[in-house]
Write a structure and sequence with these properties.
Radius of gyration: 23 Å
Distance between the termini: 61 Å
Shape: elongated
Order of helices and strands: EEHHHEHHHHEEEHEEEEEEEE
Largest sheet: 11 strands, mixed
Length: about 250
Amino acid sequence: MSDNPNEKGLVSRSPSDLTVDIQNRQPESRFDRLRAAIKDAGGRDFVASQTGIGKTTLSQYMKEGDWKLSQLEKIADFAKVSIGWLIDGDRGAAATSSPASTQHDDLVHIDYYNIAASAGFGLCVDESEKPEKVAISRRFLRQDLGLEPNRALMLETRGDSMEPALHAGDRLVVDTRQQRILDGIHVLVVNGSLLVKRLSAELDGKVRIASDNPLYPPLFADIARVRWGKPDGDNTITVIGRVAYRLQALS
């Protein structure tokens, strides 16, 4: 067993419980595994709100010290991992889980903004809007879309300007990684309005902001006005990300 006190897993149970010594069986420590589980479950603040465990306690658990078994059970249950894996990296415990548990293990949480990107004339952006969390398949994000959870978000679209590609009520999975080439359907902010439009770079140094519906004429702007990131209220056109996938609404 390691002489490093931070590598001696002491799981504090209720007063009548015993204390268990744990030896890590993998290169990473139990704290690394806990940090990874909490991150994949939506982050410290979200896990705290869903489990009733304080943010300070979770932060402490991820760095050092003892874990209370009762609270560890809540974390493991919400993060859909086994206690055995958190404590000592025992994947055998996870392998004996039920099929339903295995399905939950594939889930990861991404930001969901309860605002709509307008496939029309635009909706004003409420900068105070805070994201919720929505569960989505990690395998689908990584293998099918090539996305990492921290580089993806989801929102809904409204209006008819992007028909037939997109319809009102469709939920969009957006890739927020900066792209070298502006091409395809993107979510962007123009003059404070949140839009979903098809972007393309023109030979004259302009960017074409177009709707798929021919009833809506395209806009043109100097490509120097376009940047990636978060809107800051100036005269720039801010690209939030490229639409990677749509979840079609059923009428």
